[in-house]
Amino acid sequence: MKINYECASCMLRQSREAIENATDDVELRMNATLKVLDFMNTNFKKNYQSNKLGTKLHHMIMDETGNDDPYKNLREDGNKLALNLIPMVKNLIEKDDTLLNYIKIAVAGNVIDFGALKEDTDMESLIKKQITKDPVINDIDKLDNALKNAENVLYLTDNSGEIVFDKLLIKKIKEDYDVNIFLALKDGPILNDALIKDAVDLGLDDYTTIISTGAASVGVVEEFVSPEFNDLMNNVDLIISKGMGNYEGLTEMHIERPVYFLLTVKCNVISRDIGVPVGSPVICEKLLIN
To answer: What is the reported pTM?
Structure first.
């Protein structure tokens, strides 16, 4: 997906939060802010890929502040928040153990996003509200049929916290469809995205083969991820993609396999691109053979 004029203000807000998370040094914050303004003036251009630009911006901030993981505390807080909600979530599953309900829960977890939303957002209340919503686009029947005919599935994670709910869905898919699941996580810290350690700590290696995308990027960026990961995307039977960053990146790629996007729409740009209101849960199949 290409940048839109609205992306500028979002990236500047993210930059301020990232800088403040990275350092308490006021002088360093000022210097990093000036670098951000120079970066945006030079690189914020029409037709630039949105998550590619965001990746470069966040790595520049890490370099300027000397902090390679500004969102470490927020990532850990996200996991704690989600784990505290597990009793409520399991109660919902006991009442309705369909694939759709597991996906609704996983998609509700996608609101734990400190890139798209302000850091002072009440994530717990937002998740509880989001779980009650039905998908505005609902390709669950297509996904169910694809899983029935699949052997190998690639699952692209998004944020910390959210991955706690992903585990429930992944376990459901593994048990009901008996597929091999490759679980892809970032090679290093970026925003509050889930890392390999998060997946291992949660025991996701019991149900999946945990792999790295080969990059610490906002979502998937074709030129940043490893050649092995690129090959895998075109050799599995289907891809399940969580979150907006992966949507931004995958829609810029030629992929010869069906992709099922599971996300909560949190910005106007993606809202218009998908054609649903902000706040919508989405289960959407897209064929990315351009």
So the answer is: 0.94
- Which token pair is 56? 């470069």
* Domain CATH for 135: 3.40.50.10880
- The domain tally of the chain equals 2
Decide: 200 and 171 in contact? Cβ < 8 Å: no
Q: Are residues 269 and 241 in the same domain?
A: yes
CA-derived radius of gyration, the chain: 18
Residue 223 dihedral angles phi and psi, to the nearest 5° = -80, -10
Same-domain pairing of 139 and 257: yes
Task: Check pLDDT > 80 for residue 287.
Answer: no
235-252 burial by CB neighbour count: b if 16+ within 10 A, else e? ebbbbbbbbbbbbbbbbb
Same domain, 149 and 192: yes
In this structure, the answer to whether residues 201 and 172 fall within a common structural domain is yes
Kind and range of the H or E run holding 124: helix 123-131
Among 22, 39, 65, give the residue marking a domain's end. Answer: 65
* Closest by CA position to 250, among listed 264, 239, 235: 239
* Average of per-residue pLDDT across 125-142: 88
Query: Can you tell me the mean pLDDT for 269-285?
Result: 94
pLDDT digits (tens, 9 = 90+) for 102-118: 999 999 888 875 544 45
Question: If you average pLDDT over residues 42-67, what whole number do you get?
Answer: 97
Domain range for 249 is 72-287
The amino acid present at 104, given as its one-letter code, is K
